[in-house]
Amino acid sequence: MCYFEQTRWSCGYWRWGHFKQQCNKEYRMGETCGLKLVYHTIPDPDVCRLCHDREKKERRLNKMIADVERWKQEGNRSATIERTEGEMAIVQEQICAMNKEHALRQFSLAQGIVGKEQTTVENATNLWLTLPLLQ
């Protein structure tokens, strides 16, 4: 039960910070017992990097949608429209993956690699909703 700092952004995303205090179970210097507890939470008023990246992709997608609408009115740009619609599908998939990664991290207790976890967004949400309240 070693203690670490925790950074939490306004969007709910979080990460473990620096090691702060060693517990009694681990006697070797520089080693931790493996169980992380929060020593201090550092609130960050900004949103996380993942949210910034998602906002960039959403702006790019909105521009592509506006371009395709304009090109359809102009006519004679079928190849460009087709290529851009393919790119739009890829960007939409990337945005969905970012949303899933963000939701998994908000409701998880570990800092594993999000893509390799076995939980789904629905399971993470259900687990979070069924946690007993501390009184």
From TrEMBL:
It comes from the Eukaryota. This is Uncharacterized protein.
